[in-house]
Amino acid sequence: MDILEKFKKVITIYDEILQQPHRTEIAREMREEEDLFTLLCFSEMLGLPNPAFYYTLELYPFVIERFHDWHLRMGMEKSPLNGIRCC
Q: What would the pLDDT profile of 27-76 be if each residue is shown by its tens digit?
């Protein structure tokens, strides 16, 4: 193992040590970011104007499972939107 690989391994371990106490915060921030992205994708159905609706329309097949997970996590057994039948 050369010195560069040893240095990369030390940096990786150091990064993991720094992230360890903040794992729950990082996971919460990532979940909130995903929720915001989901809201942006479905904003047109909620009555909010979305100038990028044409582009987000292509993402619906990929986002529909996230939407299902989101409304279950928020305590809604069925989809709150009439146009989306994910359950």
A: 999 999 988 888 888 888 778 888 888 888 888 888 888 888 888 888 88
* Phi, psi at 33, each rounded to 5°: -65, -40
Q: Can you give the length of the chain in residues?
A: 87
Residue 45 near residue 6, CB atoms below 8 Å: no
**How far apart, in whole angstroms, are the C-alpha atoms of residue 42 and residue 73?**
17
Q: Is 65 part of a structural domain of the chain?
A: yes
Q: Which two tokens stand for residue 66?
A: 């996230």
Tokens of 11: 């940096």
Cα distances from 1 to residues 10, 38, 63, in angstroms, run: 13, 45, 43
Would residue 83 count as lying in a domain? no
Domain range enclosing 27: 3-74
